[in-house]
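Hi support team,

I'm filing this because I wasn't sure whether my run with adenosine-5'-diphosphate finished correctly. The job status page said complete, but I'd like someone to confirm that the output block is well-formed before I use it downstream. Pasting the exact inputs I used:
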Amino acid sequence: MSIEYLKQSDAAQRRAKQLMECGEPGQACDAYLEAATQMLRFAGTQQGEKQKNALWLAEQLIEDARLAGDDAQKQNEARVAGIAAAAERKIAAAAQTPDPPAPPAQPDPPAPPVKPADPARPSPPARPEKPAETQTNNSSAISRDLKSWQQRGSRMTSDAENRMKFVPVESPNVHFSDIAGLENVKSMVRLKVIEPILHPELYERFDKTMGGGILLYGPPGTGKTMIARAVATETGLDFFSVRCSDIVGKSFGDGERNLKGLFDAARESGRAMIFFDEFESLACKRGGGSTVMNRIVPELLSQMDGFQQADGLLVVLASTNRPWDLDSAVLRPPRMTERIYVGLPDFPARHYMVKKALEELPKESLLDYDRMAEALEGFNCADIAAFVERVKEAPIRRGLREPDVPQFITVQDVEDALAASHSSVQKSDLEAFGKWEATQH
Ligand SMILES: Nc1ncnc2c1ncn2[C@@H]1O[C@H](COP(=O)(O)OP(=O)(O)O)[C@@H](O)[C@H]1O
Ligand SMILES: [Mg+2]
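And here is everything the job wrote out:
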């Protein structure tokens, strides 16, 4: 669906910006390219002005990728130069250290040739007076350093650097009023997050914990990701939005380090929300084939436990379409104490959604929102958003054909869009939630 491409492009752009801020232009370049690819895909689904705009945006993203790539190259050159200089300094220092006394009975081992590990590195100064043994020790120490630097690559290792990777994203500018239905989620968030900010004394008096873990689960396209973004906007908490791919790294131990960095960064902020989208891909059941995931889950559990006990207002919000894939320990208190099913929109929510989307647009006559809300029963919100887009396309198409005639949305446009729209919800999906729910009590 075209809107998905836009969302993915948007997410990749945000990632790219964060990576640039963290001094990771190489990875940012990849993220910008991903954003450009998604934008091109989106352009493929559009026509006319919209398509032109999307193509222009894609071009900008490619330019951003190019600039990030240039930065990465400079950074790499600077790193190589830094390492080479450090290597030279070490060699020079070694040249000044007194020779260690040779062990009496041991014959000298043959000196292996000193190979520069990096062709860009200047060759070490000749030291004819040094005994072979010292030369070997220093060279192997240096080549060990070089090797470990190469292995390290652009990966950050220290705790502080790890924390730096996770910076809160800008307020996503989605509001509660943009969200149809989900009243139970909104009121839970009010109780857990907004009211403690407004009335801290009341919560303190009753020694009520603030924040905590909230799991949103339900079929796709019902607004789980969207409401997390609205919570961030409405509460003003620092919003750390994470996907599994942000955590699981390429090297051994990356996942644990990244998780720690993430929670440290959120704790440091003191008023933060960590949002794990598609939580099942991170907190999946242990015991499967993946050793990486088997190591990440315990770390996640211990970080979550520490997080809940930390001072400040800290919230972990997670969303999943597949709660049955979650490791059961994640669901136990004190971790996800609140679990909220985010289901298909009911009549008032469908009504709210179509009315809000179409109300302000130029129309020929009054539209029958009741009729639409009725006809869209069984649709998820993403399907309804797609229906609304379809309604808007009809007058735009007419406008492109007849640029001088003012165009309006007509009742027929709505009927045509209704006839062409389908629900993407699978009955078996809904049944699966029912079954899972039954196992939880
Ligand atoms: N409750 C809602 N109110 C208004 N629009 C919604 C709602 N839920 C979903 N949408 C629309 O559907 C799109 C996909 O929703 P999303 O939050 O990604 O669903 P989920 O995370 O549950 O799969 C959103 O970008 C938005 O356009
Ligand atoms: Mg989602």
